[in-house]
Amino acid sequence: MFLCLATALVHVLLVFLHVAPPNPLSQQYSRQVDAWVFPLFEQNWRLFAPDPESVNRQISARTTHTTPDGTVRVSGWFDLTAVDSSAVRHNAFPSHTAQNMLRRAWSSYLENHATDDQSRSQRALMTQRYLTNIASDRVAAHRGGSFEAIQLRVVTVPITAPTPAGGPGVAPVARGAGDTRYLPWWKVEADSHGN
Amino acid sequence: METEPVPAPHPRTVQRAEADAPRRAPDHVRATLASLTERPVSLYAAAVLRIGYGLLYLVFLLREFPHRHQIWGPGSPWTPELARQLFDQTGWVSILTLSDSRAYFEACYALAVVVSALFALGWRTRAVSVLFAVVVASFHGRAIFMTDGGDNLILLMAVYLVLTACGRRWSLDARRTRLRTCAGTAESMPVDRIAGGLRPHLRTSRRTLTAVLHNCGMFVIAAQVCFLYGSAGLYKVQGGSWGNGTALHYVLNLDLFRPWPGLSLMVDEHDVLISVACYLTVLLQVAFPFVLFGRLKYPVLTMLLGMHLGIAVLMGLPLFSGAMIIADAVFLPDRFYRALGRLWQRTAQGAGSGKTAEADRPLRAPVPAQSEPAG
What residue of A is the nearest CA neighbor of B223? Predict the structure, then answer.
């Protein structure tokens, strides 16, 4: 009985140290906290905190295909995010595939890569392959055909700050004036995707 | 709470009671310990969590039925190979990565649907609760890069609910026990005890273990919800946009969380409303752990319910909101749920048989009374 109670108390303490901001106590016992909490009790409750995202990301993809006579043909851009947004629109219960799949794949890619897009860790390589698979699955489902490589383009569109009442409306100008990031061409695995 | 109606005591008795207080303190501790080991608390709230999360996961699985291959299947972009690679790094396990066959996946999906339904119904609850936790952990880990806060909370609760006696109320198990009690099987219990032997001892220690596990489980669940709100609130305090009351403007303009753009735009135009909602959100979340011990918790829980309903509709996050609302329900007392149950019974009887409901009542009354010895 006391074992049970003690376990409950220790669990609560360790979870507290896990969710609290880094502090001397959690740093000192980080090994114990991680050993207990990961992977089952991992949690993160920074819901829209400290600040909510102030940008919308628009991710598009294009592919290359080498024809039998040797010419390389590059396709037009296919807007992956627009598909997600339209799946969410007027849907009372949007799917995780629309709200979370591409969004979280991109955020975990960002966490694991510097701006030069080099995959320096195994985790980085995994997130890159995940992104490639999502994009090539969607392109293949959208227009079919075969392709050997895929490139992503991420346009970051900032959400304009709220205009003070009666102030000049600047919203239409800022919309679409985001910065654009082109990712390198990635080879598509021939065995499972796109072909 | 039962002592409230007692008339005001005589001044002298009060003095004597105060003098006795230090001597009675160990008694008090002993009573608390006894109730911890003998009386499982909040059985109705545990049942509500069971029904709530069972149904919520069932709805989630069915909603994602057309997308199940993309999310958990062997052909998903997060390939079984990638999932296994990540499990090697994190130490997670999932029944879904045991085989890459399509038929095996469909069987797992069907199992998950059946287990969620049985868990909600409370059939052989302890065994099914273990299965439910395994299913939720397996599906969660397989699609870890597609989860959000709601999924995370469902996983934690599924694991914690294994500890609780969540099948004691409002379940098929409770119904079976009640029917058996009515049939008179329970009368053999005293005979057993008189006969002596090992069985009564085993039964007592099993009951103690169940109660202790349940109470510890409920404590952990309550603490978990407090940490959730506490940290969500305190991290928000650090953000500038929550401080100047514009955070919700950005939230309302996220394309993927705007199922009704017209509605979001309409709300977004009221900047005073937005600021008030920002401050209220932070205040409610930070205050949450502190109001739970007083009557203030009822208005706070009501406001949180409103907030989550707003998130469900405005942001298109019904799964997340549902998970949060069910978690909040753990803080409602059993007398609230009993009153709800009586109301439900009365409505069902009223709707079902009209005037005969009155005639039924004297006959039915003893049955619920028997089913609540540990209430």
Answer: A12
Query: Residue A134: how many CB atoms within 10 A of its CB?
Result: 25
The phi, psi pair for B208, rounded to 5°, reads -60, -45
Is the per-residue pLDDT at A175 higher than 90? Answer: no
CA B350 to chain centroid: 29
Nearest to B232 by CA among B318, B311, B346: B311
Residues A117, A29 share a domain: no
The amino acid at residue A60 is S
- How far apart (Å, rounded) are the C-alpha atoms in residues B170 and B35? 23
Domain shared by A115 and A31, yes or no: no
Give me the pLDDT at residue B6, please: 37
Distance between CA atoms of A136 and B242, rounded to whole angstroms? 38
Phi, psi of A65 (to 5 degrees): -140, 130
Interface of B with A in 272-291 (CB under 8 A): 274
CA-wise closest residue to B157 among B52, B34, B283? B52
Beta bridge partners of A66: A72
Give the angle B311-B289-B43 at the CA atoms, nearest 5°.
85
Cα–Cα distance, B197 to B204 (Å, whole number): 12
Q: Are residues A67 and A17 part of one domain?
A: no
Residue bearing tokens 């026990």: B177
Name the 3-class secondary structure at A161. coil
Q: What are B284-288's contacts with CB under 8 Å, separation 24+? A: B284/B229, B284/B233, B285/B229, B285/B230, B285/B232, B285/B233, B285/B236, B286/B229, B286/B230, B286/B233, B286/B234, B286/B237, B287/B233, B288/B226, B288/B229, B288/B230, B288/B233
What are the extents of the domains in chain B? 41-175, 238-344
pLDDT value of residue A169:
44
- A158 to chain B, any CB pair closer than 8 A? The answer is no
| Smallest Cα distance from A92 to chain B, Å | 6
d(CA B315, CA A94): 10
> What does the pLDDT look like over A7-39, one tens digit per residue?
999 999 999 999 988 889 888 999 999 999 988
Q: Is residue A154 part of a domain?
A: yes
3-state secondary structure of B141: helix
CB B77 within 8 A of CB A134: yes
Assess if residue A42 is contained within a domain.
no
Chain A nearest C-alpha distance from B33 (Å): 10
A89 within a domain of the structure (yes/no): yes
Q: Based on the fold, state whether residues A13 and A69 are members of the same structural domain.
A: no
Domain count, chain A: 2
Spatial separation of the C-alpha atoms in residues B306 and A142, rounded to whole Å = 40
Query: Do A101 and A7 share a domain, yes or no?
Result: no
Q: Is A44 part of any domain?
A: no
Q: Is B335 on the interface with A (CB under 8 A)?
A: no
Do A108 and A64 lie in one domain? The reply is yes
Q: Rounded mean pLDDT of A157-171?
A: 67
Please tell me whether residues A67 and A150 are part of one structural domain. Answer: yes
pLDDT at B355 over 80: no
pTM: 0.87
Range of the domain at A129: 55-187
